[in-house]
Amino acid sequence: MKNTTYPIGSAGKEWQQSERExxxxxxxxxxxxxxxxxxxxxxxxxxxxxxxxxxxxxxTDRYPVFSIRSKDWNAEKPxxxxxxxxxxxxxxxxxxxxxxxxxxMTMYSKNFNIIVVPCVxxxxxxxxxxxxxxxxxxNRSFYPNSPAEESALLIDLVNKMGDFLVHIDLHETTDTxxxxxxxxxxxxxxxxxxxxxxxxxxxxxxxxEKPQADFQAAVINSVSKVTHIAPAxxxxxxxxxPVTQHGVINYPMKKLGLCGGITNCVYSTTTEVYPDSxxxxxxxxxxxxxxxxxxxxxxxLSQSE
Length: 305
What we know:
With about 300 residues, the protein is an alpha/beta fold. It is about 35% helix and about 15% strand. GO terms for molecular function: metallocarboxypeptidase activity; zinc ion binding.
């Protein structure tokens, strides 16, 4: 019996190599990583230390991956990691990270060593996809011997950097999560697709093991000055998880292999911008990501006073 909710695969059967190839063959390049992202990274190299930390084997020339570091790295200052584009299709994660570097990073570098990885998954950026070409989700693959190149390269980079105090991972929740990516996930894994709802607004995902409620609240408060915060649904949930405070849910980051668990930092949050809302523009979404970073860093600074 064919899968009735997704055009690839058969109901109740996990995808094999042929289905994964069929999925990849229906993808196409829709925008340019080199023109829209790499060019912006290169333009920052006069003010920050830009380093290529690897390249994806799918096309090493087309998909180099970069980090941007504050200058004068000082062992006396705490380290901050900001990641974007773990899911390459989540546009404001990439461009919000770059906007933060361009407009705010120099100021906060007085107090922190900051490293920004603006686009972890450039193939996903170009094809507007959640997965990599092997139909693997990089944001479920942050663990030793990761099957996702994108995740493995970032793990290697982070492991060389020492301890981190803060990690902010920039994401989006989009309408296509429900129309495309969740049905595809169910089909890939041979499971029944159960429809869900997409929240209208910004929210954050904290770490179940170290939720840092006041830190999350500071991020939400900062973003609320830029865009609206997602309300809980009738079950007091957001995307199926209990709301712990306004605009905040928690996941077990390391257990799920999420990027948010890549370090042993004290303060971590995963941002979720909703770019499909009629209330926001692309610019608003980028500003919301910047506001989230600023809110988090300001809170951490307030704790050291």
